[in-house]
Amino acid sequence: MQLGADMLDGIFAHCQSRDFLCQLQESAGPRKEVQVLGSNGGVLQRFVLKDRPEDFQVSEELEIGAGHPAGASQAYLRIEKRALSTDAAVRILSGRLGVPLKEIGRAGLKDKQAIASQWLSVPYQAGLEQQLARLDTPGLAVLEVRYGTQPIGIGMHSSNLFRIVLRAVEPEFKVQAGDFHFPNYYDTQRAKLTSASLGELLYGLQQRQPDAIGIFLGRMEQLPLRLQKADSQVRWAMRILAERRQDGVRALLEKFSIADKREYLSALSGVLWNFQLSQLLVGSGPEVLLAGNALGTVVVPAGVQQFQAKTLRQAQVGTSNRYIERPAIAVARIRHVAWAGANVTLELTLPKGSYATMAVKCLALRSVMR
């Protein structure tokens, strides 16, 4: 895929120029009201996802030896966080322990609107256990401490265990224990339209592409007004660039933190991956428009055999523009299903890098399209 200031052009054009059998919508905010709408606007499926943190529980699977403080250079902390992002938890621990942010290792990010446990590594120092015992932060607890010599790095975990409650499911959709194969799309935690648009702008500015600002402002004219209003960074960028142009570029680059820039470029990479994956899967099943603060389409194949071993090269925009191999199909191992009225509880295991929220949405789409 060609990298440039207009990377999203093809996706916008594709989504706006076609009629789709149905579309997938979700509400803004941590509590997600998800709907599958037919071509006539009628609701084919609806449910509530992440109604409360207890409805979305995730535990990271990572092999960590017990170790011993003697000779250890790293301490491994198994934390549990509630309604708190991984980045926020890391910042809290950095401040309380006096450890620079860049020296706290993690295998991945866990959802904010959730109860999530995961491992972090910090440089081991005498008195660490006493510092941890004094940690008193709502929504954050250290459950266990182990010791070793190597910091935890991105992708070191093998899988994640989930317990998910879907509420007000209407109509009841078919789901059963066993393996569920679904397209390995990124969900809006990463592939968000507003963030991807800012990522496209940042990349264009980094590459000194003269049309980067004009493309961004034109892109924002295509963006639903409610999304513009919901994203304060987008509103600010639109105003500062429209008013001050080159002066505004300097202000924009200074305002966005390194973490902001990383998030926006990551969102752009995610949106591009989703489009690339849909292009691979087109023809294997109905194409569903992603509406709201997402961009692109979802194809849920009727059969996955021809794609199961397929990987695609995903551009990591802004990271030396390198590529990684990512599986086209992920497998959710559904261990238990329990209905209680209109609510259903799912217990499942997913490989690292796959999105449980997208697995649930694909289950709903598969049910509608049977």
Please give the structural blueprint.
Layout: H1 9-16, E1 22-26, E2 32-38, E3 43-49, E4 56-61, E5 74-82, H2 86-97, E6 105-106, E7 115-123, H3 128-133, E8 140-148, E9 159-170, E10 178-183, H4 193-206, H5 212-221, H6 225-230, H7 232-244, H8 246-255, H9 258-281, E11 287-290, E12 297-299, E13 311-316, E14 322-327, E15 329-340, E16 343-351, H10 356-369
Parallel strand pairs: 1-11, 4-7
Antiparallel strand pairs: 1-2, 2-3, 3-9, 4-9, 5-7, 5-8, 6-7, 9-16, 10-15, 11-12, 13-14, 15-16
Helix pairs in contact: 4-5, 4-9, 7-8
Total helices: the number is 10
Q: Helix fraction?
A: 25-40%
Order of helices and strands: HEEEEEHEEHEEEHHHHHHEEEEEEH
The average pLDDT value, as a whole number, equals 88
Radius of gyration: 22 Å
Number of strands: 16
Category from helices, strands and their pairing: alpha+beta
The percent range for strand residues is 25-35%
Overall tally of domains: 2
- Cα(first) to Cα(last) distance is 33 Å
The description of the largest β-sheet is:
14 strands, mixed
Low-confidence stretches: none
Shape: globular
